[in-house]
Fold:
Amino acid sequence: MGRVGHRPVEYHTVPGYSRMPPDQDTMSGSEGARMQSEEFVSAIETLAVSVDAFHQRFDIPQIDMASVDGTLDALRQRLSLLDEEVGEHARALNRGEIEDAVKEAVDVAYIALGTIHRLGTDGLAACHEVARKNDAKSPSAYSKRSATGKVLMD
Structure:
């Protein structure tokens, strides 16, 4: 178990994937790929902590999921923010500005994480469900499409 801020974090187990908490990692297998995996998970954790702090600092409330109209309005506002960031990412790509395109892709993730944060327990439950669904996919039933790189059922 790791820690984010003052809260314990349960490490997610995925069949065929070995990610031990950093203090228990034996670095078996391809050390370079394994280190990159650790760095990726750490970077995403950093984003999540930043999003949480940002929402606290600016007192951004969770969405009242009991109100359908309020929920839809709030999600439309979030979609507008996502659309803006995706547009900035596309502009950087179209200009061939790779460094800016990478930063804009992370801005898209930041806004998406903020949306999950605003959704409260519903957002967290959706995270677990989407992870469970994708973790259940295996190469025996799914394959990567060469044109898009998307993994689809055979």
